[in-house]
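I hope you will forgive my troubling you with a question about protein structure. The matter concerns a single protein, recorded as an amino acid sequence and a row of backbone structure tokens. Please examine both parts with care and let me know of anything in them that strikes you as inconsistent. Here, with my thanks, is the record as I have it:
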Amino acid sequence: MGASALARLVSETKERIRCANRVSLFLDFDGTLVPIQADPAAPRLDERTAATLRLMSSLDSLVTTIISGRAVEDLYARIRLEDLIYAGNHGLEIFGRNLRFVAPEASAAREPLAHLCEDLADRLQPFAGTMVEFKGLTASVHFRQAAPADHLEIEDTVRAAVCRASGLFRVNPGRKVFEIMPRSGWHKGMAVCWINRHLSHQPGENILSIYLGDDTGDEDAFSVMPEAITIKVGIAPLTLAAYRLPGPAAVHEFLFWLAFQKAAQAQRA
């Protein structure tokens, strides 16, 4: 799928990208910019991807948002570029390029979420390879290193604990992770719309959105972006995205091509 998927994506989107005065680019982190790893603390950008992000951040015609389930502070610490927008905790918190947002319902639920995480950490102790990560506005229960035979019981334990939490939270299954989210009605798709609405632009400016993501939460963004270039990363069988790429290596090739296109366009202007 790799080379042919990338070739089709470039061929079918080249003219739309060329005609856009500005591109609003959204990138998931784990599984999109970097490979998924067993230890959630391990992923780091490789030098080539970091250099491409630096190039993109220098272009006025390209606004880049990194949108992830990670907390904003964690996300920024792994990239450290000032001219990007960072949307952490699945878009519940946003900062960068003079934008600042925290979903109020999520902020109000911090303390109950912390108590829920303490309860879950105790209840999941019998299952080796599980980890409960409290991220301020959301939480993740990682079980990538747990025994496959324990997966169903881990899920039952997580869902039962969330049910006891007064209906404040919901569970989103991910790739060997359960995301615990506040019942706020906010998701990555809402964050994308908020960011695009608040970006400064000239009247009549042609803005094209591009979104690349690999996880179930990215489907919320795909669903509200019918006019965008939407790209599913990985081999999930079903998606609302218009295009697919196999993994982070192909994502980097596309991003490098995109940065080159917009840089060349700026030089001609």
Summary: The mean pLDDT is 94. Residues 2-103+186-268 form a domain with the Rossmann fold fold (CATH 3.40.50.1000). The CA atoms of residues 52 and 256 lie 6 Å apart.
